[in-house]
Amino acid sequence: MFCGTKVRPIKVILDSYDSALQVLVNAKKLKSSNTFKHVNIVQDRTKRQMENYKSIRTELARRHEAGDNNCRIKFINNVPRIVPLN
Q1: How far is CA 29 from CA 24, 34, 50, 67, 76, in A?
Q2: How confident is the model over 7-56, as pLDDT tens digits?
Q3: Closest-CA residue to 52 (of 81, 23, 31)
């Protein structure tokens, strides 16, 4: 039975890498739109990439709990790293 309130992911396949990159670059603009502020666009990741990102998030949470709030996660060459805010 269809339930309109359940959130479900969809997979979108684009014709070219450039088109996909353009969508990912502009995805953050959706957050400023009232209509699409709950839409989240993310790049597909392998299991290893997801595990690596989870360990980075855990490390960032540990640092925040220790009082180091001057850092964040930034993707450099599509690899997540903890970097200073400034």
Answers
A1: 10, 11, 24, 31, 20
A2: 788 888 999 999 988 998 888 888 888 888 888 888 888 999 999 999 99
A3: 81
